[in-house]
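Technical annex B. To support the medicinal chemistry partners, we prepared a structural model of the target in complex with inosinic acid, based solely on the information shown next.
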Amino acid sequence: MADHNYQGLEILYSRQQIAERVAEMGAQITQDMKGEKLVMVGVLKGAAPFLADLARAVQADATFDFVATSSYGQGQRTSGAVRLIKDLDHPIEGKNVLMVEDILDTGLTLSYLRKLFMQQRPKSLRIAVLLDKPSRRIEKIEADYIGFSIPNLFVIGYGMDYAERYRNLPDICVMSPDHPE
Ligand code: IMP
């Protein structure tokens, strides 16, 4: 699994491993949707590459929407509070919604969003995450579709950032706490 690239960053999942797993997730979602329409709601900005790839692996009549929340800010620490920065563009009442997020970590973001979305009475609400860090959970929430379950590591790449950088790395890398940045 370990590989070294990007000046000392260790690759946790390569672009090929990601592509294979996303294809499997897409096939599973296609099967579960049973030909119904779907609204894929990405959580900006980290979920953008994952949503783009997952959407193309799902065979369904799908539309996109995006929300944005406050998250880690300028470092590896979270403030604990979640704030909505950008709301949905379109109502989701009576729709099949798939929330698409890069990482399920403490669960604060997705439980906040799930509560918010449920107020609109969607027909169904499912969650797809690329990475799950179950050991970090504060809120009781599980995803319906999980790419990879990982230990408590800080990761970057494939949408995920450290102080807004590294989102465009094609692989998922581990950033050690003593990385020079
Ligand atoms: P949660 O609300 O704690 O579940 O975290 C949600 C958000 O925290 C994720 O969508 C990421 O934006 C961010 N996050 C959590 N872990 C990491 C990480 O290892 N790298 C980069 N961002 C992270």
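Notes passed to the chemistry partners:
Strands lie at 4-5, 9-13, 38-44, 62-69, 84-86, 96-104, 124-132, 145-149, 155-156, 172-174.
The first strand starts at residue 4 and ends at 5.
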